[in-house]
Amino acid sequence: MLGIIAIASGVLLPLGSLASPFVTPVGPMDLFKRLSSGCSTSGSASCHNSTVQSDLCCFESPGGLLLQTQFWDTDPSTGPSDSWTIHGLWPDNCDGTYEENCDSSRDYTDIAGLLEDQGASDTLSYMKQYWVDINGENEQFWEHEWSTHGTCYSTLQTSCLPSGSAKGAEAVAFFETVVKLFKTLPTYTWLANEDITPSSSKTYTLSTLTSALKSASGYTPALSCSSSTLNSISWYFNIKGSLIDGTFVPIDAPESGSCPSNGIKYPPKSGSSGGGGTSTTTSGGSSPTSGSLPSKAHLTALTSSGSSTGGLLSAGTWSTQTLATYTLAGSASSFTMSTSKGKCAVSGGELTCGSDIDSASSFSASQPEFQQVSSGGNLVLAYGGSTAWTADASPSGATQETVYTGSSHSKDFTLVITSA
Ligand SMILES: *[C@@H]1O[C@H](CO)[C@@H](O)[C@H](O)[C@H]1NC(C)=O
Protein backbone atom coordinates (compact mmCIF):
# COMPACT_ATOMS: atom_id res chain seq x y z
CA MET A 1 0.00 0.00 0.00
CA LEU A 2 2.84 2.37 0.79
CA GLY A 3 6.32 2.77 -0.56
CA ILE A 4 9.55 2.42 1.35
CA ILE A 5 9.81 5.08 4.01
CA ALA A 6 13.18 6.75 4.29
CA ILE A 7 14.45 8.30 7.49
CA ALA A 8 14.77 11.84 6.27
CA SER A 9 17.95 12.91 7.96
CA GLY A 10 18.63 10.75 10.93
CA VAL A 11 17.63 13.38 13.46
CA LEU A 12 16.75 11.65 16.67
CA LEU A 13 14.37 12.58 19.39
CA PRO A 14 15.30 10.79 22.58
CA LEU A 15 12.73 10.65 25.28
CA GLY A 16 13.88 10.42 28.82
CA SER A 17 17.46 9.74 27.86
CA LEU A 18 18.72 12.47 30.15
CA ALA A 19 16.76 11.12 33.06
CA SER A 20 19.20 8.29 33.66
CA PRO A 21 21.40 7.38 35.38
CA PHE A 22 19.51 8.73 38.33
CA VAL A 23 21.74 10.53 40.73
CA THR A 24 19.09 12.30 42.74
CA PRO A 25 17.46 10.52 45.65
CA VAL A 26 14.02 9.24 44.72
CA GLY A 27 10.96 9.01 46.92
CA PRO A 28 8.49 6.11 46.78
CA MET A 29 6.28 7.82 44.21
CA ASP A 30 9.23 8.49 41.96
CA LEU A 31 10.12 4.82 41.76
CA PHE A 32 7.04 4.33 39.60
CA LYS A 33 8.12 7.06 37.25
CA ARG A 34 11.48 5.47 36.69
CA LEU A 35 10.07 2.54 34.76
CA SER A 36 12.94 1.57 32.53
CA SER A 37 12.84 -0.92 29.67
CA GLY A 38 16.53 -1.76 29.82
CA CYS A 39 16.48 -1.65 26.00
CA SER A 40 19.26 -0.22 23.88
CA THR A 41 18.34 2.64 21.53
CA SER A 42 21.32 2.13 19.26
CA GLY A 43 19.90 -0.66 17.10
CA SER A 44 17.67 -0.42 14.03
CA ALA A 45 14.68 1.85 14.04
CA SER A 46 11.36 0.07 13.73
CA CYS A 47 10.50 -0.79 10.11
CA HIS A 48 14.20 -0.41 9.23
CA ASN A 49 15.65 -3.74 10.33
CA SER A 50 17.41 -5.86 7.75
CA THR A 51 17.22 -9.07 9.80
CA VAL A 52 14.48 -10.63 11.89
CA GLN A 53 14.44 -9.10 15.40
CA SER A 54 13.73 -11.64 18.08
CA ASP A 55 13.31 -9.40 21.15
CA LEU A 56 10.05 -7.60 20.48
CA CYS A 57 10.20 -6.04 23.96
CA CYS A 58 12.99 -3.87 22.60
CA PHE A 59 11.96 -3.64 18.93
CA GLU A 60 8.49 -2.40 18.07
CA SER A 61 6.86 -4.85 15.65
CA PRO A 62 4.68 -5.26 13.74
CA GLY A 63 3.36 -1.75 14.58
CA GLY A 64 6.59 0.14 13.92
CA LEU A 65 5.15 3.10 12.00
CA LEU A 66 3.94 5.52 14.67
CA LEU A 67 1.48 8.36 14.18
CA GLN A 68 1.16 11.10 16.77
CA THR A 69 -2.28 12.39 15.89
CA GLN A 70 -3.64 15.75 16.99
CA PHE A 71 -7.03 17.44 16.70
CA TRP A 72 -8.06 20.98 15.91
CA ASP A 73 -11.63 20.84 17.23
CA THR A 74 -13.82 23.90 16.72
CA ASP A 75 -17.35 22.52 16.68
CA PRO A 76 -17.58 22.28 19.61
CA SER A 77 -14.21 23.66 20.61
CA THR A 78 -12.02 21.60 22.86
CA GLY A 79 -8.79 22.49 24.62
CA PRO A 80 -6.86 25.77 24.72
CA SER A 81 -7.59 28.17 21.86
CA ASP A 82 -3.88 28.38 21.09
CA SER A 83 -3.05 24.68 20.96
CA TRP A 84 -3.98 21.60 19.03
CA THR A 85 -4.97 18.69 21.29
CA ILE A 86 -3.80 15.09 21.54
CA HIS A 87 -5.72 12.37 19.75
CA GLY A 88 -3.26 9.53 20.32
CA LEU A 89 -0.17 7.61 19.30
CA TRP A 90 -0.99 4.81 16.91
CA PRO A 91 1.18 1.85 15.91
CA ASP A 92 0.63 1.24 12.19
CA ASN A 93 2.35 -1.65 10.47
CA CYS A 94 5.25 -0.67 8.25
CA ASP A 95 3.03 -0.94 5.14
CA GLY A 96 0.34 1.34 6.59
CA THR A 97 -2.11 -1.40 7.56
CA TYR A 98 -2.79 -1.65 11.27
CA GLU A 99 -4.02 -3.75 14.15
CA GLU A 100 -6.39 -2.60 16.87
CA ASN A 101 -7.77 -3.90 20.19
CA CYS A 102 -4.94 -6.35 20.68
CA ASP A 103 -5.48 -7.52 24.28
CA SER A 104 -8.87 -7.10 25.91
CA SER A 105 -7.49 -8.50 29.18
CA ARG A 106 -5.67 -5.18 29.51
CA ASP A 107 -8.60 -2.86 28.69
CA TYR A 108 -8.00 -0.84 31.85
CA THR A 109 -10.64 1.38 33.38
CA ASP A 110 -9.93 4.43 35.57
CA ILE A 111 -6.88 5.60 33.63
CA ALA A 112 -6.89 8.77 35.77
CA GLY A 113 -6.60 6.65 38.91
CA LEU A 114 -3.78 4.55 37.43
CA LEU A 115 -1.82 7.68 36.59
CA GLU A 116 -2.38 9.20 40.01
CA ASP A 117 -1.51 6.01 41.87
CA GLN A 118 1.66 5.51 39.90
CA GLY A 119 3.18 8.95 40.34
CA ALA A 120 2.04 10.43 37.03
CA SER A 121 -0.26 13.20 38.32
CA ASP A 122 1.68 15.75 36.30
CA THR A 123 0.93 13.80 33.13
CA LEU A 124 -2.71 13.51 34.19
CA SER A 125 -3.11 17.23 34.76
CA TYR A 126 -1.53 17.93 31.38
CA MET A 127 -3.94 15.42 29.78
CA LYS A 128 -6.93 17.19 31.35
CA GLN A 129 -5.97 20.25 29.36
CA TYR A 130 -4.47 18.84 26.18
CA TRP A 131 -5.91 15.32 25.73
CA VAL A 132 -9.57 16.15 25.86
CA ASP A 133 -12.65 14.55 24.43
CA ILE A 134 -14.99 16.59 22.24
CA ASN A 135 -17.94 15.60 24.46
CA GLY A 136 -16.08 16.04 27.72
CA GLU A 137 -15.77 12.28 28.25
CA ASN A 138 -12.02 12.35 28.83
CA GLU A 139 -11.79 9.13 30.82
CA GLN A 140 -13.63 7.17 28.11
CA PHE A 141 -11.46 8.73 25.43
CA TRP A 142 -8.24 7.77 27.26
CA GLU A 143 -9.53 4.23 27.87
CA HIS A 144 -10.36 3.96 24.17
CA GLU A 145 -6.93 5.16 23.03
CA TRP A 146 -5.24 2.68 25.37
CA SER A 147 -7.41 -0.34 24.58
CA THR A 148 -7.62 0.29 20.84
CA HIS A 149 -4.03 1.30 20.14
CA GLY A 150 -1.92 1.07 23.31
CA THR A 151 -2.48 -2.66 23.77
CA CYS A 152 -1.00 -3.29 20.31
CA TYR A 153 2.56 -2.18 21.13
CA SER A 154 4.86 -5.19 21.32
CA THR A 155 7.23 -3.26 23.60
CA LEU A 156 4.40 -2.62 26.07
CA GLN A 157 3.43 -6.24 26.65
CA THR A 158 3.33 -6.96 30.39
CA SER A 159 6.00 -9.64 29.93
CA CYS A 160 8.38 -6.83 28.91
CA LEU A 161 8.04 -4.96 32.20
CA PRO A 162 10.51 -5.24 35.06
CA SER A 163 9.31 -7.85 37.55
CA GLY A 164 7.25 -6.37 40.34
CA SER A 165 5.84 -3.60 38.14
CA ALA A 166 2.44 -2.35 39.25
CA LYS A 167 -0.61 -3.47 37.27
CA GLY A 168 -1.12 -1.06 34.41
CA ALA A 169 2.43 0.33 34.58
CA GLU A 170 2.77 -0.11 30.82
CA ALA A 171 -0.36 1.98 30.25
CA VAL A 172 1.05 4.69 32.52
CA ALA A 173 4.25 4.60 30.46
CA PHE A 174 2.17 4.88 27.26
CA PHE A 175 0.38 8.04 28.45
CA GLU A 176 3.63 9.58 29.70
CA THR A 177 5.35 8.89 26.37
CA VAL A 178 2.48 10.31 24.32
CA VAL A 179 2.42 13.51 26.41
CA LYS A 180 6.20 13.93 26.15
CA LEU A 181 6.13 13.43 22.40
CA PHE A 182 3.17 15.80 21.94
CA LYS A 183 5.08 18.53 23.81
CA THR A 184 7.75 18.40 21.10
CA LEU A 185 5.14 18.90 18.35
CA PRO A 186 3.61 22.38 18.90
CA THR A 187 1.59 22.49 15.69
CA TYR A 188 -0.26 25.70 16.63
CA THR A 189 2.94 27.58 17.44
CA TRP A 190 4.73 26.35 14.34
CA LEU A 191 1.88 27.60 12.16
CA ALA A 192 1.53 30.87 14.09
CA ASN A 193 5.25 31.55 13.66
CA GLU A 194 4.58 31.61 9.91
CA ASP A 195 1.58 33.91 10.43
CA ILE A 196 -0.85 31.06 9.90
CA THR A 197 -3.43 31.65 12.59
CA PRO A 198 -7.06 30.61 12.93
CA SER A 199 -9.42 32.87 11.06
CA SER A 200 -13.12 32.82 10.27
CA SER A 201 -12.56 34.40 6.87
CA LYS A 202 -9.14 33.38 5.51
CA THR A 203 -8.37 30.16 3.66
CA TYR A 204 -5.01 28.51 3.13
CA THR A 205 -3.50 26.23 0.52
CA LEU A 206 -2.28 22.81 1.56
CA SER A 207 1.24 23.61 0.39
CA THR A 208 1.36 26.78 2.54
CA LEU A 209 0.37 24.79 5.62
CA THR A 210 2.61 21.84 4.87
CA SER A 211 5.69 23.87 4.04
CA ALA A 212 5.32 26.01 7.19
CA LEU A 213 5.23 22.84 9.29
CA LYS A 214 8.07 21.24 7.40
CA SER A 215 10.32 24.26 7.78
CA ALA A 216 9.62 24.39 11.53
CA SER A 217 9.92 20.66 12.27
CA GLY A 218 12.07 19.35 9.44
CA TYR A 219 9.39 16.84 8.43
CA THR A 220 6.15 16.72 6.48
CA PRO A 221 3.05 15.79 8.47
CA ALA A 222 -0.29 14.64 7.02
CA LEU A 223 -3.15 17.15 7.37
CA SER A 224 -6.75 16.02 7.40
CA CYS A 225 -9.89 18.01 6.82
CA SER A 226 -13.60 17.59 7.32
CA SER A 227 -15.10 19.11 4.16
CA SER A 228 -12.51 21.83 3.67
CA THR A 229 -11.95 22.55 7.36
CA LEU A 230 -8.66 21.55 8.91
CA ASN A 231 -9.31 19.21 11.83
CA SER A 232 -6.42 16.84 12.38
CA ILE A 233 -2.75 16.25 11.81
CA SER A 234 -0.53 13.17 11.94
CA TRP A 235 3.17 13.41 12.75
CA TYR A 236 5.05 10.24 11.78
CA PHE A 237 7.88 8.39 13.51
CA ASN A 238 9.77 5.15 13.75
CA ILE A 239 11.21 4.22 17.13
CA LYS A 240 14.47 2.74 18.39
CA GLY A 241 14.04 0.65 21.52
CA SER A 242 10.89 0.51 23.64
CA LEU A 243 7.87 2.80 23.73
CA ILE A 244 8.64 3.17 27.45
CA ASP A 245 11.88 5.07 26.94
CA GLY A 246 12.94 4.69 23.31
CA THR A 247 14.17 7.22 20.78
CA PHE A 248 11.63 8.58 18.32
CA VAL A 249 12.93 9.01 14.78
CA PRO A 250 10.82 11.57 12.91
CA ILE A 251 9.96 10.79 9.28
CA ASP A 252 7.95 12.41 6.51
CA ALA A 253 4.34 11.28 6.29
CA PRO A 254 4.25 8.30 3.92
CA GLU A 255 0.92 9.44 2.54
CA SER A 256 -0.98 12.71 2.51
CA GLY A 257 -4.07 13.41 4.57
CA SER A 258 -7.56 14.22 3.36
CA CYS A 259 -7.31 18.01 2.94
CA PRO A 260 -7.92 19.49 -0.50
CA SER A 261 -5.06 21.39 -2.13
CA ASN A 262 -6.61 24.79 -1.57
CA GLY A 263 -9.43 26.67 0.11
CA ILE A 264 -8.63 25.14 3.49
CA LYS A 265 -10.35 26.78 6.46
CA TYR A 266 -8.59 26.99 9.84
CA PRO A 267 -11.33 28.44 12.06
CA PRO A 268 -10.75 29.85 15.54
CA LYS A 269 -11.89 27.89 18.55
CA SER A 270 -14.81 29.63 20.24
CA GLY A 271 -13.61 32.16 22.78
CA SER A 272 -10.56 32.88 20.70
CA SER A 273 -10.20 36.27 19.12
CA GLY A 274 -9.12 34.66 15.92
CA GLY A 275 -5.52 35.48 15.31
CA GLY A 276 -3.30 38.19 16.62
CA GLY A 277 -5.42 38.90 19.69
CA THR A 278 -5.00 37.58 23.18
CA SER A 279 -6.01 34.03 23.85
CA THR A 280 -8.53 33.20 26.50
CA THR A 281 -7.47 31.89 29.88
CA THR A 282 -8.13 28.17 29.95
CA SER A 283 -9.76 26.27 32.75
CA GLY A 284 -6.38 24.85 33.70
CA GLY A 285 -5.39 28.31 34.85
CA SER A 286 -2.73 28.99 32.27
CA SER A 287 -2.53 32.64 31.32
CA PRO A 288 -1.96 34.21 27.95
CA THR A 289 1.66 34.45 26.97
CA SER A 290 2.77 38.03 27.23
CA GLY A 291 5.39 40.69 27.55
CA SER A 292 8.45 41.24 25.44
CA LEU A 293 11.02 38.55 25.95
CA PRO A 294 14.38 39.64 27.39
CA SER A 295 17.34 38.20 25.47
CA LYS A 296 19.32 37.67 28.70
CA ALA A 297 17.55 36.72 31.90
CA HIS A 298 17.85 35.29 35.38
CA LEU A 299 15.31 32.72 36.48
CA THR A 300 14.38 33.18 40.13
CA ALA A 301 12.28 30.70 42.06
CA LEU A 302 9.10 31.84 43.77
CA THR A 303 7.72 29.18 46.11
CA SER A 304 4.02 28.61 46.72
CA SER A 305 4.29 30.47 50.04
CA GLY A 306 5.29 33.52 47.97
CA SER A 307 8.90 33.70 49.11
CA SER A 308 11.76 34.00 46.67
CA THR A 309 14.41 31.30 47.14
CA GLY A 310 17.41 31.34 44.82
CA GLY A 311 16.95 30.34 41.21
CA LEU A 312 18.52 28.44 38.35
CA LEU A 313 22.21 27.73 37.78
CA SER A 314 23.71 27.08 34.34
CA ALA A 315 22.95 23.34 34.37
CA GLY A 316 19.25 24.04 34.97
CA THR A 317 19.36 23.09 38.65
CA TRP A 318 17.80 25.11 41.49
CA SER A 319 20.17 26.63 44.05
CA THR A 320 20.71 29.62 46.31
CA GLN A 321 24.12 30.24 44.70
CA THR A 322 24.77 33.04 42.19
CA LEU A 323 22.23 32.73 39.39
CA ALA A 324 23.26 31.93 35.82
CA THR A 325 22.48 34.12 32.84
CA TYR A 326 20.05 32.47 30.45
CA THR A 327 19.95 33.42 26.78
CA LEU A 328 16.39 33.41 25.43
CA ALA A 329 15.68 33.30 21.69
CA GLY A 330 12.31 33.45 20.00
CA SER A 331 9.07 35.08 21.03
CA ALA A 332 7.22 35.16 24.36
CA SER A 333 4.91 32.42 23.12
CA SER A 334 7.71 30.13 21.98
CA PHE A 335 11.42 30.38 22.72
CA THR A 336 14.57 28.37 23.29
CA MET A 337 16.94 28.80 26.25
CA SER A 338 20.64 28.22 26.64
CA THR A 339 23.33 28.87 29.24
CA SER A 340 27.13 28.71 29.31
CA LYS A 341 26.68 24.93 29.67
CA GLY A 342 24.67 24.57 26.43
CA LYS A 343 21.10 24.37 25.23
CA CYS A 344 18.28 23.75 27.68
CA ALA A 345 15.55 21.15 27.25
CA VAL A 346 13.00 19.29 29.28
CA SER A 347 13.79 15.63 28.89
CA GLY A 348 12.25 12.86 30.90
CA GLY A 349 10.41 15.59 32.82
CA GLU A 350 13.67 17.23 33.97
CA LEU A 351 14.99 20.64 32.99
CA THR A 352 18.61 20.28 31.86
CA CYS A 353 21.09 22.55 30.11
CA GLY A 354 24.27 21.08 28.68
CA SER A 355 26.36 20.40 25.64
CA ASP A 356 24.90 16.89 25.36
CA ILE A 357 21.54 18.50 24.55
CA ASP A 358 22.97 19.57 21.18
CA SER A 359 23.68 16.07 20.04
CA ALA A 360 21.46 13.99 22.27
CA SER A 361 18.30 15.98 21.95
CA SER A 362 18.80 18.04 18.84
CA PHE A 363 15.27 17.62 17.59
CA SER A 364 13.54 18.81 20.71
CA ALA A 365 16.21 21.26 21.84
CA SER A 366 16.27 23.08 18.54
CA GLN A 367 12.54 23.66 18.69
CA PRO A 368 11.05 26.50 20.69
CA GLU A 369 9.21 24.97 23.59
CA PHE A 370 9.27 27.46 26.45
CA GLN A 371 6.75 30.25 26.94
CA GLN A 372 6.70 33.48 28.95
CA VAL A 373 3.41 33.83 30.79
CA SER A 374 2.04 36.58 32.99
CA SER A 375 1.15 35.33 36.47
CA GLY A 376 0.50 37.23 39.69
CA GLY A 377 2.14 40.38 38.33
CA ASN A 378 5.28 38.51 37.23
CA LEU A 379 6.45 37.13 33.92
CA VAL A 380 7.10 33.44 34.54
CA LEU A 381 8.54 30.51 32.63
CA ALA A 382 6.08 27.94 31.22
CA TYR A 383 6.77 24.65 29.49
CA GLY A 384 4.11 22.92 27.40
CA GLY A 385 1.52 25.38 28.68
CA SER A 386 2.23 24.77 32.36
CA THR A 387 3.92 27.26 34.68
CA ALA A 388 4.36 24.63 37.43
CA TRP A 389 7.87 23.48 38.33
CA THR A 390 8.83 21.24 41.24
CA ALA A 391 11.79 19.76 43.08
CA ASP A 392 12.21 17.28 45.91
CA ALA A 393 13.25 20.03 48.34
CA SER A 394 14.16 23.71 48.58
CA PRO A 395 17.88 24.24 48.12
CA SER A 396 20.07 25.73 50.83
CA GLY A 397 23.78 26.46 51.02
CA ALA A 398 25.56 24.74 48.16
CA THR A 399 22.90 22.14 47.37
CA GLN A 400 21.44 21.92 43.87
CA GLU A 401 17.99 20.46 43.27
CA THR A 402 16.85 18.87 40.02
CA VAL A 403 14.00 20.88 38.49
CA TYR A 404 11.00 19.00 37.10
CA THR A 405 8.16 20.27 34.94
CA GLY A 406 4.65 19.91 36.36
CA SER A 407 3.84 19.41 40.02
CA SER A 408 4.79 15.81 40.72
CA HIS A 409 7.46 16.49 43.34
CA SER A 410 7.03 17.83 46.84
CA LYS A 411 8.25 21.42 46.46
CA ASP A 412 6.23 23.59 44.07
CA PHE A 413 7.50 26.84 42.66
CA THR A 414 7.31 29.14 39.66
CA LEU A 415 10.28 30.57 37.78
CA VAL A 416 10.19 34.34 37.40
CA ILE A 417 11.95 35.73 34.33
CA THR A 418 13.91 38.92 35.08
CA SER A 419 16.01 40.72 32.55
CA ALA A 420 19.76 40.30 33.19
C1 LIG B 1 12.16 -7.09 11.06
O1 LIG B 1 11.83 -7.72 12.28
C2 LIG B 1 10.49 -8.21 12.32
C3 LIG B 1 10.25 -8.74 13.72
O2 LIG B 1 11.10 -9.78 14.00
C4 LIG B 1 10.27 -9.26 11.25
O3 LIG B 1 8.93 -9.68 11.25
C5 LIG B 1 10.64 -8.70 9.90
O4 LIG B 1 10.56 -9.72 8.92
C6 LIG B 1 12.03 -8.13 9.94
N1 LIG B 1 12.35 -7.53 8.66
C7 LIG B 1 13.38 -7.93 7.92
C8 LIG B 1 13.58 -7.22 6.62
O5 LIG B 1 14.12 -8.84 8.26
UniProtKB/TrEMBL annotation:
It is found in: Cytoplasm; Vacuole lumen. Residues 279-292 have a biased composition (Low complexity). It comes from the Eukaryota. InterPro entries: Ribonuclease_T2_eukaryotic, RNase_T2-like, RNase_T2-like_sf, RNase_T2_His_AS_1, RNase_T2_His_AS_2, RNaseT2L_C. The active site is at H87, E145, H149. This is Ribonuclease T2-like. Rnase which modulates cell survival under stress conditions. Released from the vacuole to the cytoplasm during stress to promote tRNA and rRNA cleavage and to activate separately a downstream pathway that promotes cell death. Involved in cell size, vacuolar morphology and growth at high temperatures and high salt concentration. The keyword Transmembrane helix does not apply. Residues 259-297 are annotated as: Disordered. Residues 1-19 form the signal peptide. Keywords: Cytoplasm, Disulfide bond, Glycoprotein, Hydrolase, Lyase, Nuclease, Signal, Vacuole. Residues 293-416 form the RNase T2-like C-terminal domain. One of its GO terms (molecular function) is RNA binding. It is an enzyme of class 4 (lyase). Its EC number is 4.6.1.19. The lineage of its organism: Eukaryota, Fungi, Dikarya, Basidiomycota, Agaricomycotina. PANTHER family: RIBONUCLEASE T2 (PTHR11240:SF22). GO terms for cellular component: extracellular region; vacuolar lumen. Its main location: cytoplasm. GO terms for biological process: RNA catabolic process. It comes from Neolentinus lepideus HHB14362 ss-1. Belongs to the RNase T2 family.
